[in-house]
Write a structure and sequence with these properties.
The chain is mainly α. Helices cover 61% and strands 0% of the residues. It is globular, with a radius of gyration of 26 Å.
């Protein structure tokens, strides 16, 4: 708790002042900011500007600008231009593009940033320059790190929304390093890769990249509430499980978290103490809807025949897709059991947690001669069809 207070108190103090005025001294003017930040600007910016100067009779098209200057595809530009169609000249987007080029974003990177958040091109250049300077001098990020932050899922959106420096002053020490922000995007109903069953229960800040657009813009007061909610789960304050819980709680609110705990306790017929132990292993389950949890528990207990205690010891089972993983793999196991090709003691979790490639090799290809058509049947179940046992 003391460690968390050390992270939160400077953040709360920082929130009392609306903007870092000292950073303005680092940026003499809008023109100077654009000039100093564009040491290595995108060459398309100059060539396109020159072309516009010779064709002043042609009306400015934001859609064309997104393609010719920002590098978006025609389809991306058509979608993005709807958010910036009010821009009638290239003056503002040129200034923003020059500043962001100065942090080392390549042409492809800039295209990815503006495709993710085209409204960045509408932001006032002084605000963009101040936010870049704040990340450099207040948080201590290098230009490559700033570029990485913008390329994170939600990073461009967060940068457009607010100055992320005060938020990062909390998250970076809390997670342990800046690199911990750059996590693989997690899907709530994902198919985990080889041997990820264990890793999924021990990875830091689940959904950090998925929810960074929201989390990185939370106010210090909101962050404090999130940490307090996570503390109620009674996890060790410095553990990865607690950081996982913070990530899960950040996607919800206290009422939803309490409702999920009550629902899981009732559905699995366990005490809150035993449930907390399961949540410590896999806090991601708190982010699943009650309908998804209900259908998975009903399937695992009623169809597969698992005991609630078995699920509580392996709560990551509840994060797998019912339609794309649990149901298809159970179908294959049922076929092999009926044919007497595997023992009844086969561990269902062991069948589920391996990668699709390993599962197919071990349970389908290995029995190809004994059970012709099993591969096709498995593919059919994965696509939503449920054939009779082959």
């Amino acid at each position: 708790m003391l460690r968390l207070q050390n992270h939160l108190l400077p953040l709360l103090r920082a929130s009392s002042s609306s903007s870092p005025l000292h950073l303005r001294r680092l940026i003499p003017s809008t023109a100077a900011a654009s000039s100093s930040s564009s040491v290595h600007p995108n060459r398309r910016l100059h060539s396109t500007a020159a072309a516009r100067s010779t064709t002043t009779a042609t009306p400015f098209s934001m859609e064309d600008y997104l393609v010719d200057t920002c590098g978006l595809t025609a389809a991306q530009a058509l979608k993005a231009s709807k958010n910036v169609s009010h821009l009638k000249s290239a003056t503002k987007p040129d200034a923003v593009l020059a500043i962001l080029s100065g942090v080392g974003l390549s042409g492809a990177d800039l295209a990815a940033v503006f495709a993710a958040e085209p409204r960045l091109l509408c932001t006032k250049a002084p605000s963009v320059a101040l936010r870049v300077a704040s990340l450099r001098h207040r948080v201590g990020l290098s230009d490559p790190q700033i570029a990485s932050l913008l390329l994170l899922p939600g990073g461009a959106k967060g940068f457009h929304t607010c100055d992320m420096a005060p938020r990062l002053e909390f998250w970076i020490p809390f997670l342990g390093s800046f690199e911990m922000l750059d996590l693989e995007e997690e899907q709530r109903d994902r198919q985990l890769e080889p041997r990820e069953g264990y890793q999924a229960q021990h990875r830091a800040a689940p959904g950090m990249s998925q929810t960074s657009a929201r989390v990185l813009t939370f106010s210090p007061e909101r962050l404090k509430v999130i940490v307090q909610q996570a503390e109620k789960l009674r996890m060790p304050g410095c553990s990865w499980a607690f950081k996982n819980a913070v990530g899960a709680v950040a996607r919800s609110n206290e009422g939803i978290v309490n409702a999920r705990m009550e629902f899981l306790s009732s559905s699995l017929g366990c005490s809150m103490e035993k449930l907390r132990s399961a949540v410590c292993k896999c806090p991601q389950i708190l982010g699943l809807s009650e309908s998804k949890l209900h259908s998975k528990i009903e399937f695992l207990v009623g169809k597969v025949g698992l005991e609630p205690d078995y699920i509580l010891q392996r709560p990551v089972l509840l994060t797998y897709s019912l339609e794309k993983r649990l149901l298809p793999r159970h179908y294959v196991v049922e076929v092999l059991l009926v044919k007497g090709l595997i023992k009844k003691t086969v561990d269902f979790y062991g069948c589920v947690c391996v990668s699709n490639e390993d599962f197919v090799a071990r349970y389908i290809d290995h029995h190809e001669n004994a059970v012709p058509g099993l591969a096709d049947a498995y593919a059919a179940v994965c696509s939503g069809k449920l054939p009779a046992l082959v």
